[in-house]
Records
---
Amino acid sequence: MKFDNAFIPCGFAWSSPFVRWQGTLADVSSMDLGVTVTNDALAQRDFDPQRLTQLVMGTTVPQADSFYAVPWTAARIGAPGITGPDISQACATAVACVASAAATVDNDPDETVLALTTDRTSNGPLMIYPKSRSMGGSPDTEHWVLDNFAADPATGKAMVATAENVAAEAGFTREALDDVSLLRYRQYEQSLAGDRAFQRRYMQPVRLTDRKGRVTEISADEGISPTTAEGLAELKPMAGGVITLGMQTHPADGTAGTLICGQATARELSNGNGIVRLIATGFGRAAAAHMPKAPVLAAERALASAGLSYHDIKLVNTHNPFAVNDLWLEKQTGFPLDRTNIYGSSLIYGHPQGPTGLRSIAELIEALRLEGGGLGLFTGCAAGDTAAALVIEVRD
């Protein structure tokens, strides 16, 4: 899908820190987290939420009262007169939300849409499905997070099996995959340099107030595992192949958001700091149980819609739950590994699902700004051997 007049004002894409699951945010509803961080983000940017014309939400893990996610959230952020869709597309949710918001603005540049993604993988709900004809009326149950991590119902395969399948087909060695993981960790360390100077460009702290009025602030990612070549070499494969815990991401909790509007509004809001043109999105699906291949397919479709090639792209960011993803992308496209995820990726800082892609897009925007603007590509896989991609351009 191609867009002609959908923009993000520079400075108007943000993310909370990501907190490893069962950590500090384990008992905080993702609905509350999204509202708290969004309110702070809009206030910090001196943006009046009454200017919003639509809210697009992205969630993948149900929370208490999330049946009313959009109107409830809109009221709590000071925009009670708006509504919009609540989108759930597994790990592709962020791009799906951006695509929905961009299509709305592309049709009417006077629209100003907030895309808000939020998820908590910690303490995932236990779903109970009535089954009156079973023995004694016993219900079926589903651990929403854990059971879906364990297997794709279409294939019966766990996500790690998809990484093993692609690694085996491509002939990726354990050593090559460890090298990718180590590179990604070192790139993430660059985002921490100078007292987290890069992360502070987009990261919105989480401020939680308890019943006694005491405030807890989370200003940086929590639960990052230090990575060394020696430590990676000591890990054993999880499924008898080459994939170890050092080559895959970890579940997390977090939220991310962005404002999408027409060019004139974007220019006004950016205060001379530049704008981000949303050019095209693309979605793709790989063969069954080959999820790490899907980001290349989605990227090809987004680039084709934009009339561009990898030769036009300055930087790529990926959602890479496995190091296999990035090695496959390099093998298929030739795009250099060291020009991908130059300030880190979900492989290192974790994966709350819905917000993961939007954090990576916010990082891509800021990385391009530091490089003087230009074209960037985000692409990332999602459950069901699918993926989503977005092409952007940062302009003065």
Note: Residues 222 and 369 are 26 Å apart (CA to CA).
---
Amino acid sequence: MSAFEPVRFAALTDVGVKRSHNQDACAAQPAVDAAGFAAQGHVFVVADGMGGHAVGEKASAKAARDIPFLYSKHARDGIIPAIRRAFQEANAGIYAIGQQNPEFRGLGTTSTALVIRPEGAWVGHVGDSRAYRIRKGQAEQLTFDHSWVWEIARRQGVDPDELGDFKKNVIIRSLGPDPEVEVDIEGPHPVEPGDAFLLCSDGLTGVVTPQEVGAVVTAMKPDDAARFLVQLANLRGGPDNITVMIVQVPDGHEKDAGTKAAKTGIFARLWAAWSKRVPWAFTVLGGGVVLALLSLLMQVGAVPGATILFMLAAGLILAGLFGLFQHTQKEEPVSAVEIAADTAPRELNVYKKYDCRATQELAERFARAEASLLESMRAQGIPVDLDAHAKLAEAAKVAAGQSDSAAAFRARCASLLFLAEAFHKARHKEESFRPSWTPSPSSQS
């Protein structure tokens, strides 16, 4: 994705079934033009708070709010230092809250950030909230879970799923508990047209398999896919807060805005390249000096407007001097170590891969879930527009008889989503739908 293109994205966070407070948070900061894309890129963040009630909620909200801002602040220093400093400064802020308020001691949050830039996709990561890249029927996990089970599996050289639920929810790294934190930075992963990225909290991955996640994201639009995945997690008990963020790269079939937009993009890229190398204060100050000299020449030649131009020049010079003062007050420059890390060749880690094609078996699994859910809703007297659902179910049935498996799977998901949203709207906390099917153990690996 070397040129600027707007991405489609959707984000949804839900308290789940068993929890009373939502301690998850997310944020999106997509670039709006070519200059912003070249300088910073598209930025997306998911955070999962820990510490009980408002404590975890406060930590995750601060991480989701601060990391995009801090990354943008440091973006001119290079992608790796910018991501690292964003996480470290967010960690320092959360840690300070815990130290200043005894009731907030121990607050913390996981956080995973995705940055899509011209050279590829970068991931900054602390905790067990995950990032996946979904491409051509395969879901790739781009993050390493900072949990006991994943760490022990790494040391033993085995698949984490082979250890079962052993300390599965014990996090060994997060933002907030300690004054300093180690940040995993992965990238740049190549980005191809049609790629989709998913960020999520463990409220999703704890109950929905990566195969299901990838198939749903591939088959449905981002908004629909996010809603479906949240509702599927809730149907399976919703034991934790659930956050889903989906980012979809255009597949190349959509036309550009035209030649004018392309020319504007070239100018914006040139300006972004200049701004990356020359602080804005020097640019403004230089412009003010040029205008001041021009106004003096106009005054000597008795050209009208010299006074107005001189006043404008004076304003630019003052603004430039103020910006120069701010520039000198900034934090220490990027270290040689950070510069070396930014330019050194990097290993691209894909920690796990899953086949996520929309198979007939998966469609049938969702069809069984739908039939079981409809039966449960009728038994409980939960109101639902049966005529509208019947149309969706019939469309799924017709599509299943055709050769387009993707369309059939998409139609089945739409039909199940209709029922799931009606069911979730009506049910109370601590109540859960108990389906007559469960994913097989092999589907979790």
Note: The longest strand covers residues 108-117.
---
Amino acid sequence: MALTTAQAMTLPGMEMRLLAGRAGLARVVRWAHVSELADPVPWLRGGELVMTIGLGLPADGEGRRAYVERLSGAGCAALAFALGEAVTEVPGDVLAAADACGLPVLEILTPFIAVSEAVARWHADERVRGERRVVAAQEAMARAALVSGTSGILRALAEHAGGEVLLLDPHGGPRASVPPGERPWHARAVEAAGSTARRSAGVMDDGIEAVQVQSLGFSGPPTGWLAVRTASPLDWHVRMLTNHAVCLLAIELLGVRAGRARSHAQRAALLSAVLDGGLSTRQLGELCSVAAPPYEVVVAGPRVPVEAAVEALADVVADAEAEELAFVCPRPEGVLFVLPDDGRRRGEELCARLGAAGGGCRALSLDELPAAARHAAALAGRGDGYTHVDDLEAWALLRDAVDPEAARRFSGAVLRPLREYEARHGGHLVASVRAYLEAGENLEIAARRLGVHRNTLRRRLAAAERVSGRPLTDPGHRLQLWLAVSLGDLVPPGRVTGHPPE
């Protein structure tokens, strides 16, 4: 709250009357000062109630008008005369100039020192009142933080600062505002936040409105930005409230980030169990919330910190509900993202935010997630930016030419004898046949990859030949086995149509 000239005239013990310049009674009185100089302007800072007995008043009318105009231009609050010492009345040209400039001219009957003391006392009392308001506002913001989190802090700040509030994300994008919706001053705040990547604070004041922009966070790059718009000039208590809100928001964001990290870690453990074969996709849906299909599967890496991945996901998705249904899963080949697929392909933006190579694939169901993850990881491993399966024409054509259900039936029919034997006697026949074929039918290499003796692998392959009824030297049999064990890896999931193209 500011002390105006009109209020200063009514302070306890004051005896003043207005002579001219009624239009300027709302001018703010910052201090009361005595000056008998012919030009006191160089010694003033603005907001002074200048008191004089008229010794410095120019003798000519033109000089007196210039005297008043200089005081008004310097931002003085009012000019007060004690009559009877040097002048018995205020000259008419002074009053005329004061009316023209809107500078109040007063007759003062109170001792100058009493006026100075009264103004100083008012400002001291106002400081105490302001501190009490700040304490009350800080308590209100703290309660709001406990009850409503970020939104409560912003509402309380806007109410007690008497202005508007905007919260920005680390990249300068609007996250929340009070009142809601875009406002004309938001663009200035976004520009100020985007002009530096370091933590900082600043005020833009055009004499009509003041916009304070302050970074969030206690160390490292900003975790966001808080902007507050109030009338000019910016009051000291608004600065204090903004600083307090910044601390509360930084703590709130740290808590949100910690909670988000814990949630994603729990979900990542479940998804890893699915990918490693220890959990079924049906059990995954029972143990945690999963978005409806289809899914965008992205692998970014390698060596991407999972904390950075979680933050990148929050920034790219920009939807708390969608983020809660996503997965961020650290894997040996990189960080795996599983997102609800709405056709926007967020994988490229995710990898760009993380500065990592990446690959993407579409999954039409939870059952397709392991295959989609393998294809995305293979593309990420190329290390040449981001590539989606659909951008590789041959892969996409092969996927659309093969009916996934028919491929599963084919694999089941070819491998059924081997799997039935494994169920009764063990022996890992399917894995052994696959390793042998992938090694170019080199027994030594395949045995090393499986971690078994070559004689053990030889016995397994002989059992596979006996069970299937055909030797592995038969090219047609080898081709059937190779397609049966590899078709899921060779053909990416995410087939849009349910029927092969004509």
Note: DSSP finds 18 helices and 15 strands in the chain.
---
Amino acid sequence: MSLYGVLRSGVSGMNAQSNKLGTVAENIQNSSTTGYKRASTEFSSLILPSSEGNYNSGSVTSRVRYTIADQGPIAYTTSGSDLAISGNGFFVVTDPSGSPYLTRAGNFVKDGRTGNLINAAGFTLMGYKLGANAVDPSLNSLDGVEPVNMASFGMQATGSTLGTFKGNLPFGQPVALATGTATPASAAPPVAGNVLFSAPTVSRGAQVAFSVGGGPDQIFTVTTQKTPAEVATAINAAVTAGTLTGVNASTNATGDLILTSTDPAFSTNVTGSFTSVSKASSLQVYDKVGNPIKIDISLSKVDADTWTVRVFNGSDPAAPLTGTTSMELNFDADGKLMGSGVLGFNIPGGEAFSLDMTGMTQLAGEYNVTGSSNGNAPSAVKDVEFAADGTVYAVYEDGTRVGAYRIPLATVPSPDNLSPRAGNVYETTAASGGYQVGFPEMSGFGSIASGALEGSNVDIGTELTAMIEAQTSYTANSKVFQTGSELLDVLMNLKR
């Protein structure tokens, strides 16, 4: 056995245990570091060729490994921009020079200088911008990602292009509310022929149709919401103008609308019908520069299975909507809508707008409809919200939410072989493999929790135990080196 080999073996052992003590020290000091992954030292033996009569002691080699794939505990915080990944994946971040890295440290805050979201180590969170210029993620690269910065979403107006109007229209509602009959010619004394419309407030789009003495139908269409008395005044004005003939409109003590024949014989029959706008609603939309426009929607019952829908500019009747402003909704025997149910028209100063009514039903229930549309008025961003699927929403002062970014998650085939760098980030190596990019809650990727942070996966008790083991082994190896040195002194003294 070579005494020099004993010395080398002792030094090798002390060096290996020194490396182990180094990882233990690093783990302990980072036991409270967000997203830190524990390091460990693994040993392997190096055996030298020997013979039966002469043994050559070898050495031990050490290799540092990181448990990057192990999930750390998640603790909730009071900051909505703190993000934690539950499951597989890493946040994509960049350093000031733009080089990409992976990290599990999600303690992000808004940088007052640039407006970007950065973590405690100064790395910038990256995401895919949503909207008209949205970029689809590549499965094996980080092309298209950009810093998550909400400053660009403040005070932006978006014109409305799509809306929905859905719910239930009551089944079996009557079509006309006209009552009464004309006084016959043989009546004594003669009374003018009349018909009474027991009508409530008449909404825009309603039609009063009547015929005098069997003549052609005459139709008065209500252009703005009116009471029966106001309708009577408008009909009389139309008679004076010559667009309607043969009647005089009035109201009785109960407010009903009455059409009376003005035929000189006072015996001309008057017949009529009042197509009631049974229900009316409105929808808020926006033009290109963010001006709010109210779209009035009236629904008239035509027959048992048909309604007529009309839309009007409720904000400015002098600037009417253009395009297709009315359509019929036809329902089958089961109350389901037949046909497309989509009404297309143009918003003054805005975009072409599609109102989707495919969610309408006609069932034996109450009138219950809801409407919504896209677009928004200019407003400042007051808050940011993060969804579990990685979508970042800009929350405006008016309460609206707009999807601004979607945060990707990236991983590699062998996460434990990533190369750690300062700032609790990792970069890929040949052993780890290249990037695999996806979104949270997709197959193979975890979800994102807002207002939470992933803690270190270091266990202090385990590290202290490892420290005692390394200290004992280091001392034992130093005794081997010391014994070898003493034997060399004995050998050197033989010559004396």
Note: The helical segments are 3-29, 228-241, 460-493.
